[in-house]
Amino acid sequence: MSDWLREADGVITLTIHAQPGAKRSEVAGLHGDALKIRLAAPAIDGRANAALLAFVAQRLGLGRSALTLKSGATSRHKVLLVVGASVDAVRRLLAP
Predict the structure, then answer these.
(1) Where along the sequence do coiled-coil regions lie (predicted)?
(2) SS3 of 16, please?
């Protein structure tokens, strides 16, 4: 299993390195042990966090309520929790 992707008790944990202020939202590869995601939203008033959750939910075909920002609200290093998806689907839909 990848360092950025873990699963325990039906909950998937994603380690993300967010890069706000990009031209468009996209998966940009790996950044250490995290999946780097560029976001077309500024890091102001939580807009980048909202864009990250919306982007990942859309890529996985899940509702926004299936994702939770566990940690990193004010950091580029974030941990997301995902319910309702399989590890294989997440790896396939988000793989760099």
Answers:
(1) none
(2) strand
